[in-house]
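[Q] Does anyone have a clean structure-token version of this?
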Amino acid sequence: MPGDDLHTYESADLDDMSPRQAVNAVTADIRDHHITVDGTGLFNTTRHIGLLCHLTASLAADAEYQLAHNVTGLPPAKTLGASAGHLGQAIAHYTQALAPLITLTTTAQDTLQQKLDSLDHHSRLRVHLDDAGRALVAARTALEVPRHPAAASTPVPAPLRAPAARRRA
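[A] Here you go.
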């Protein structure tokens, strides 16, 4: 069946994934559940917003936790924070996409003026969804920052000490 390979994630599914895996999972879910101009599209949009909000909060919490403790296995706090910021932009664009989507799904398009107006709504919807997609790519890219090898492999030079000044008695 064609729908069997769809990725459908719930917020709780993301909790056991690494940050990068979670971003990839949300991206796959968004890719597989398209935004259409009907009730299904509205449902998918609100579900995507929920996943993005959960993931953003999780990355922000991981960044905060890492600032307090040295947590192995997590990207640096700065990287987590940058990714969370991009996810916040994706949430904003999805939220802005709701207005034209709701208008398109609830307004009759019988007259010529209504049909012309729908072109603007479709355009705004597409712009916001495209911008959300770019923000998701940026969130994923931020998590792909190469990790530096452990500090033990690069010796740290000893600090230079200035000679002590002698006082004359």
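[Q] Thanks! Anything notable?
[A] DSSP finds five helices and no strands in the chain.
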